[in-house]
Design goal:
Layout lengths: L5 E7 L3 H13 L3 E14 L6 E13 L3 H18 L1
Antiparallel strand pairs: 1-3, 2-3
Length: 86
């Protein structure tokens, strides 16, 4: 998100919980704001010649929070201070 103003996280099936957790961590730490959430199902063939199976899909669009740059600068400064103390 340092290079772009927004990022899109997406996942299928069992990975959805992981993507939601990542989005919540970014939001709760004040780094991101939720812009859009889209859910759908996609047909995927799990085996060659097998019939299609429907999988849940989620797409989460996050934007930089107003405090993003300030928080990243503070984190970078803290990392430098920790390096100097080592």
């Amino acid at each position: 998100m340092q290079q772009h103003n927004e990022v899109e996280l997406s996942a299928l099936g069992m990975a959805i919980a992981t993507v939601v957790t990542i989005a919540e961590i970014l939001k709760n730490n004040g780094l991101a704001v939720e812009k859009k959430i889209t859910t759908s199902t996609v047909d995927i063939r799990e085996e060659t010649g097998g019939r299609p199976v429907q999988k849940a899909k989620i797409e989460i669009l996050l934007g930089k929070s107003e405090k993003f740059d300030e928080l990243m600068a503070a984190a970078e400064e803290e990392a430098i201070n920790n390096e100097e103390q080592s």
